[in-house]
Amino acid sequence: MVAAFLKTTSAQSSVVDLVVNDPQLSILETLVVNTPGLAGTLNALDDITVFAPTNEAFLETLPVGLSQEQVAAVLQYHVVTTGAFAASDVSDGLTLPTALEGESLVFTVNVTGVFINEGMAQVVATDFEATNGIIHKVNGVLLPSFIAEEFLPSMPSMAPLPTPAPTTEGPGNIVEVAVGLDGFSTLVDLVVLAELDDVLASLPRATVLAPTDDAFAALDPSLVAALTSPPYKLHLQEILLYHSFETILRGPNLLNSRSVRSRGGVYITTLSTNQDRVQFKTPDGASLNINNGFADVVVADVAASNGVIHAIDQVLLPSFASKSVTTVIQEDVYDLRTLKTLLDQAALLGVLAGQGPFTVFAPIDEAFDGIVAPDDVDALTDILTYHVVPGMYPSFLIEDGLELTTVKGTNITFSVTEM
Ligand SMILES: *[C@@H]1O[C@H](CO)[C@@H](O)[C@H](O)[C@H]1NC(C)=O
Ligand SMILES: *[C@@H]1O[C@H](CO)[C@@H](O)[C@H](O)[C@H]1NC(C)=O
After folding, report:
1. pTM of the full predicted structure?
2. Which of 32, 195, 273, 365 is the most buried (most CB within 10 A)?
3. What atom of ligand 2 comes closest to residue 403's alpha carbon?
4. What is the 3-state secondary structure (H, E, C) of the chain?
């Protein structure tokens, strides 16, 4: 489903954009961005094929202790510059030169699948098309021969990750495991209240950072009260999904991964719909911490059939949780300056900072072109409150014909046209 979605939209995105927008490739993104000049070089090339190791591939198979130059060489070794090769173009024995001079990739195609360099990596997802090439995901990091010689003997295992198969034995799914743990009943209650239990249980791969009951008890009680009230269900979902990842991040491997040990740590995209990410870091051999030391992992690697749970000692709050509607309008210095001034004149900024929830249909500065706002505060208030609806209406809830009653008391109607 993800692949089909990318296929229909890919023509607009470069190879680098596809990597940036794919939560399974966030470690690759971090490494590309931290390698000077590499993103620019990739964007300047046409018709390339990138074999992109997933986050799990990096965490499991990237040797520890590579220099910056060696990382750059490893990344170049995943790029074929002689064409955009679709999965159907790859045949047994095919050898392709890479962007790393003198180093090629050798393909094996057999009944088990498509492998590179005698099983160093297996191709696990294919044909993500970009404007300037194509990406295939692989489950291991490919090492050019001169780096493999140096690092492979000391590596305990370079076998590709087994493809996870659902089992009937072993631990239950991630929700069942959380239910069975001691000290996480608040989290479990909130997940059920937000109706996310089925979502998390059915993800093929998941990591959940599970705040302890003590972590929830330390939250501002008024925040908890708001989040557990029906009007704020969407925010509760967003906050819980901010603790969840569509990829398996295991503690010991996180600890050993070079990108996590580096000063910046690694940023991983969460399942929440906003762009916030969570940072994992292990400064100087200390234990794994989250968001620059905001939270510590107190129990790592509780296995579930579809992923892993790490207990943490704080509830993570995405940036929106501390911002009222007023703050968001005030912080927007590009498009909402006129609206901010008018809301201020009508003394409505305080109202929008108060008890909500509110949905604001915010006219941008350009929308006020040629319009003279009334000086009369009542007339101005009428106009402004006609743009505010009580309740929370994200764009996915707005459908053709929807009619909503504004704070002014009159209705607005939506029509949705296919783009
Ligand atoms: C297919 O090739 C891979 C990589 O060389 C190898 O590990 C695997 O055992 C092969 N599968 C079969 C069925 O030969
Ligand atoms: C305004 O919209 C609400 C909600 O859809 C509806 O119940 C109400 O009848 C509408 N009022 C008018 C005057 O159309």
Report:
1. 0.62
2. 32
3. 5
4. CHHHHHHHHHHHCCHHHHHHCCHHHHHHHHHHHHCCCHHHHHHHCCCEEEEEECHHHHHHHCCCCCCHHHHHHHHHCCEECCCCCCHHHCCCCCEEECCCCCCEEEEEEECCEEEECCCCEEEEEEEEEECCEEEEEECCCCCCHHHHHHHHHHCCCCCCCCCCCCCCCCCCCHHHHHHHCCCCHHHHHHHHHCCCHHHHHHCCCEEEEEECHHHHHCCCHHHHHHHCCHHHHHHHHHHHHCCEECCCCCHHHHHHCHHHHCCCCEEEECCCCCCCEEEEECHHHCCCEECCCCEEEEEEEEEECCEEEEEECCCCCCHHHHCCHHHHHHHCCCCCHHHHHHHHHCCCHHHHCCCCCEEECCCCHHHHCCCCCCCCHHHHHHHHHCCEEECCCCHHHCCCCCEEECCCCCEEECCCCCC
